[in-house]
Specification:
Strand order of the largest sheet: 1-6-7-2-5-4-3
Oligomer: single chain
Strand content: 25-35%
Distance between the termini: 58 Å
Structural class: alpha+beta
Length: about 160
């Protein structure tokens, strides 16, 4: 059987980048059942409202929705069960210190296949206030306008 190569995104949490300021990112493996992997291979997952917690020295991903596998039997999984994330001990200890320190959260940004294995991009994030969100939107719009003006100037069309 040939090995899979490459990077295939299954799901991404675009709202997380809007609602949080991303301080640091980690790549974590995830412990899954067979029917969950089959459902993910069909590209079916939702990271909306999911978050990670550190309990008793282990990192758990909560509220991740992986729909039941259509062709599964009575061995099918429950869609919103708590799943264990696989990280190195040093990373877990660092996350424990950071999350206890201040109002920092662990938010999943994306889920993808990397060389045939399911990985989760986990972010250490701080929640944004509403005025921070408005500022980041205004900044993005201003940068977009600058890029448009620069492009028009290069083409000679003002």
């Amino acid at each position: 059987m040939s090995k899979e190569r490459g990077h295939k995104v299954i799901a991404s949490n675009r709202k997380a980048r809007h609602d949080y300021t991303i301080l640091d990112t980690y790549e974590a493996g995830i412990a899954l059942m067979g029917t969950e992997v089959k459902s993910l291979r069909e590209g079916r997952a939702s990271l909306v409202d999911s978050f990670a917690t550190v309990d008793d020295g282990e990192v758990w991903l909560r509220n991740l929705h992986i729909p039941e596998y259509v062709l599964g039997t009575w061995t099918n999984h429950t869609p919103r069960r708590t799943r264990k994330l696989l990280l190195h001990k040093g990373e877990i200890l660092r996350l424990i210190g950071k999350t206890k320190e201040s109002g920092l959260s662990l938010v999943p940004l994306s889920m993808y296949f990397k060389d045939g294995k399911v990985k989760v991009e986990l972010a250490l994030a701080k929640g944004k206030k509403s005025y921070d969100k408005r500022q980041s939107l205004a900044k993005r719009d201003a940068e977009r306008e600058i890029a448009k003006a620069h492009g028009r100037a290069l083409k000679g069309r003002w």
